[in-house]
Structures are given as C-alpha cells and as structure tokens.
Prior knowledge:
This protein has 265 residues and is an alpha/beta fold.
Amino acid sequence: MLHANSPDLGEEKFGNFSYVSENYKYRPYYSFNVFEYLSARVLSGALPAVAADIGAGSGKLVEMLARLGFHGFAIEPNREMVSHGRQQCLHIPEFAWLEATAESTELADQSVSWVCMGSMFHWTDQRQALEECHRILSPGGFLSVIYDLTDIGNDPIQMEVENLIKRSAPGVKRARGPIEAIMSELETILGSASGFDGCVYVESQHVESMDVDRYMRVWDTAHDLRGQLSRQQWAELKASIFQLVKHIDVIPSKYRTSAWTVRRI
C-alpha cells in the first residue's frame, strides 16, 4: 500500500502542469461529434469564425477548432505548456499562442465569437473568468465549458485500473472529484452568470484507441497521483498499471465529453 505526502516530491506537486506538459500531446481529443454540433450553433448566427481556447494546454482543442474552420487564439498560463503547444501546432498558423490566464486573457474587447474552456474551469476564479469571457466575446457570441473524463462505468479496463489505484494508494485525492463536483453545478453557475443566457448541455462518448506506450504516457500526465506520491511510489504504481494492460495490443479507452454552452447578451 502506498501513502500520500511523501517527502521527495520535488516539483511534482498537485496542480503543477510543468512537469507533465511534455506528455500532454498523448492525451485524448474531445468528442468531435460534440464540437461539430457546437460549432454549427456558433456559426448559425453569421458570426465570424474566431475562437479563443482558454487553458489550451498542448493544443488538442486548437487542432479541433482549426479543423472546424476556426482561427483565433490559444490562451495558456503555464509557460512549459505554451512551449509544447506552439511546437505541436506549428502546422496551425491560424491560432496565435498567448501566455495569459482565464481571468486576464490580454485579448481585445468583443474580439471573438466563441470561447472554449476545456477541462480547466475548476482552476479559475469563476467570477473573474466569466467577466473576462463576457468582455472578449462579441454580442451573440458563445462560451462553452467542456470536460472530458474517462467513462469509467462503461470501460472495464479503466475500472480495473481505478480499483487498483484505490487499493494501492487509498489516501490519494484524485482530480476527478473536484471536477465532478463543479460539473454538477455548471448549469446553475453559467445559467445565473451576468451577461449570459440560454445554457445548453450536450454530451457524447467517444473512444480513443491507444497502444500500450501511449496509454502509459497518458498516465504520466496524472499530476494528481504524481503530486502526492513519491517518485518511487509512482514508479511502483505505474508498473502495476502496466502489468494490467501490457498484453493488450490496442486499448479502447472510453471517454465522455460534456459541454455547457451559454450565449453572451
């Protein structure tokens, strides 16, 4: 059994994405079905196809937005993430990368039609972030808050891995808990936000087929585990996960993209 709060964590702290940024390119995309639906809604009002991806990470969502015909801005507060994101998106000159925050994006007033906040709203000062989104959105523009969690209940492999983690490291707090808590409140939070109306919710399951190497690299982005276990403990847990999946040629990892969208008034 592994115990949290070990002494040799170094820079590997809960919520510090610098040390996991290099492997973020291996993480899954969001559901393209969800984004096709949302982009059609955004463009139905004849708004220009200008988007801001706030909390852009390594650029997964930037890639999807560009594929859907959008251009605009990738906003990311973590310097290492910005560096990796720019590198990953060299083939997407339509998006400019800025090292900035959700609360202060450095974008001009009413400069974008769609703001996307992917898997990061729980890290923000909600009031300030929503005020900033309202400021940079054109009238009639849209804000989407999106999360993409493993669909544990429908994924036996992931269920087995999560049970292993619970047995091996019972004292570790997972990032999923706070995310699920805020997801349950997002309709109320966004629906009552000043300057926005018409909260619409859409979700879809999608499957990311991974070989074992990519699957383990995705686990290397688990800042919640790595931030609470020592390096040796993390290595032992990761080795146990590898033993569970090493015999699988292609791992069909199931995810569920959930999106809440409001219109700026």
